[in-house]
Design brief:
The protein is an alpha+beta fold. The chain has three domains: 66 residues, TATA-Binding Protein (2-Layer Sandwich), CATH 3.30.310.10; 159 residues, 2-Layer Sandwich (Nucleotidyltransferase, domain 5), CATH 3.30.420; 47 residues, no CATH class. The protein is 42% helix and 16% strand. A hairpin with a 6-residue loop joins strand 2 and strand 3.
Length: 309
């Protein structure tokens, strides 16, 4: 069933919480401000002001909310002008973590149907690279709860072992995309066009998955597909959300906040962690083939900015 999405101002959110205070249920998600359950609907108010209504009686409840706050369902504009076929029914896949020294490689594929357009538009689905981390967390939850998707996380020990065996980053991504496509098609039980945010040529992709058992055919390889198709944009949001959660967990085990990306600050943090835990720590938290490793080993721990923090 299609969910209904509204955007509430701070005052409207306060009014909403007060109105439904007797029907609130506890939520363990930090991004959720209020969780309301009625006989036929679940209303989730996120801290960003996004209100999502789901369930058998979602429509009449949404109509009531619309009247109370003088709103229509499609209230949030997307961050950028969208192509005419942005909501094309399709499977879209994207990866994240590929440019981050610390943390895993994550690939996600989602399926968007023709009926998903209204609520995806209201939610403001767009390329995750255009969204702040807090917004990604808020949007990923309703996307993952509503859209069919397949997700694979290649942790750092596995990533490093495969690189050592001769895989390059493109081949790793190709295999993970193909596995996600296959799993999602099995979940759907019907065929669908597949769109991939292009990271290599179509010919190279077919070569990379040549040894993969029955790799599904990709319909479109397009650069910046995450800003051209809702299915790829949704996949990029879910994938980035999972990456950020895994990165945070890795940092907690080390008692620090691991830096994203690859930069001088990342070089210095790596140098500090090597000094503190030994070179072996990189096997479990980093993509060792990055030039960051060499740079970190050339930095004296005493010179690291992290030693002074």
């Amino acid at each position: 069933m299609m969910p209904y999405v509204f955007r509430l101002s701070a005052d409207e959110a306060d009014r909403f919480v007060k109105l439904y205070q007797d029907q609130q249920h506890p939520s363990h998600a930090d991004t959720v401000r209020a969780l309301i359950k009625t006989a036929g609907a679940t209303l989730t108010l996120y801290r960003t002001g996004t209100l999502m209504i789901q369930g058998a009686d979602a429509q009449p409840v949404a109509e009531q909310i619309g009247k109370l706050f003088s709103k229509t369902v499609e209230t949030k504009k997307t961050l950028a002008a969208q192509p005419a076929d942005f909501y094309l029914p399709s499977i879209g896949s994207d990866e994240t973590g590929v440019g981050d020294y610390f943390g895993p490689l994550v690939v996600c594929a989602t399926y968007v149907s023709a009926t998903d357009k209204p609520w995806l538009k209201a939610l403001g689905v767009n390329d995750s690279k255009q969204l702040q981390d807090t917004v990604i967390a808020t949007m990923a939850e309703p996307l993952a709860k509503t859209l069919p998707y397949a997700l694979l996380v290649l942790d750092n020990p596995s990533y490093n072992r495969l690189i050592d065996k001769g895989f390059n980053a493109h081949k790793l991504k190709a295999h993970l995309h193909a596995q996600c496509h296959k799993r999602l098609l099995e979940k759907l039980g019907h065929s669908a066009d597949i769109i991939v945010d292009q990271f290599c040529t179509a010919t190279q992709y077919r070569q990379y998955v040549g040894d993969f058992d029955h790799a599904p055919a990709v319909s479109r390889f397009e650069t910046k597909a995450d800003s051209r198709y809702a299915s790829v944009a949704a996949a990029s949001i879910i994938a980035r959300h999972i990456y950020l959660k895994r990165l945070a967990t890795l940092g907690e085990t080390l008692g620090c906040v691991l830096e994203k990306g690859a930069s001088k600050r990342v070089d210095h943090q790596a140098a500090f962690l090597i000094e503190k835990h030994g070179i072996g720590i990189l096997d479990t938290i980093a993509k060792k083939h990055f030039k960051t490793t060499e740079k970190a080993l050339s930095i004296k721990a005493s010179d690291s900015a992290f030693m002074r923090e």
